[in-house]
Amino acid sequence: MMREDFALEVVKVIVQLANHTSLLIVSVFAVNRLSVHTPHWPILWRRMGTAAIYGITLLLIVLGWLFIQQEPDMQTLLQAGVCTVLGCLLIYPWLHTTAGSWKKGPSGPSPDTEAVLDTGDDFSCSDRLAQELRGALDRGELMLHYQPQFSTESRHIRGFEALLRWHHPKLGFIPPDAFIPIAEQTGLIVPIGEWVLREACTTNRLLQEAGVEPFVMCVNISAVQLQAPFFAEHVLSILKETGHSPEQLELEITESKLIDSWETALHALNLLHTQRVRIALDDFGTGYSSLSYLRRLPIHLVKIDRSFVEDMLHSSKEKALVESIILLARSVGIDVLAEGIETEAQLECLRRMCCDCVQGYLLGKPMDREVLWSYMQRYRQEQFNPVT
């Protein structure tokens, strides 16, 4: 009997220790994860979901604590242990990601990596990026890089695509796929997008004033921007403000993101089309309604996704798809640009398929405005494209 009582006491001590430790750890992490500094609805809504998980976990652990307070027997201790373990299992993924973000922390820019902060599914890291992104534009941390596009046949420059970059003073270069989704979720993409458009148009106009022949300037547009009130009017206003010609602006929309804003997008794009602004459809072939887009939208150019280009030399099916896209687009009077060109073999294959334009590291890497000026001076003097 004494042996059974001793075993019962040992089990009780172990369960109490596990329960109290779990309660303390979950409480500390919950305070850290749910602290709100900027009351923005998308972030608050996501935190409400996180709060629900923590609430259920705390409820299970407290329930385990209540079982411990009852007359100690093996059944109640087993119930307490089960509640504690279930709570810990439920919260483990959130504890793991938060601990990972604490461990990493900001360690300053590194030349070997684009970003110190790994967002992944870590809510706290995403929230932190959202906080930092709010002031990034005012602090001058956002910049544009310009990647040239070329005629496939002549290799003459056709235009440039403006690519958004973010250099944080402590976190270093943060990749676009880490912060652009956050900008879309929080609505910050609207003012950031206006800045991108204004900056790109100004750069193109200054190049022309310096004697560079007119080129097309391509600017990526988010579906969130298309849904914003008076989007088309804002674009036309920026064109007028910067003195940029509408015919030399090409707005690039992503096929896979249009499905949620179809009617609004159609109205805005038709209005811009009547004002001679060019429209390009990015990632063509990866969405749900490619042919419908070609039929209903005022498209001037389609961009073949790099995933098709990467595999076309090794897969007859991929090659046939690329050739079919080119033939389809050309048959309805739409130009075609292939992305991700990295080898001469890819370029030659696309040339034989009569693809109009190409873009990729083989012919030109993205460059900031200062490098762009030097690049265009060399281009004017030599009238051929030097590899950058």
Provide a short characterization of the protein structure.
By secondary structure, this protein is an alpha/beta fold. Helix content is 57%, strand content 14%. The protein starts with a helix and ends in a 6-residue tail after the last helix.
Describe it for me?
- The chain is an alpha/beta fold.
- It folds into 2 domains: 2-104; 123-382, TIM Barrel (Alpha-Beta Barrel).
- Helix content is 57%, strand content 14%.
- The protein contains 14 helices and 9 strands.
- It has helices spanning 2-34, 41-69, 74-104, 123-136, 176-186, 189-209, 223-227, 231-242, 262-274, 290-296, 306-311, 316-331, 344-352, 369-382; strands spanning 142-151, 157-168, 172-174, 216-221, 249-254, 278-284, 301-304, 335-339, 357-359.
- The chain has an 8-stranded mixed beta barrel.
- Helix 4 (123-136) packs across helix 5 (176-186) and helix 6 (189-209) packs parallel to helix 8.
- The model is unreliable at 33-47, 96-123 and 384-388 (pLDDT under 50).
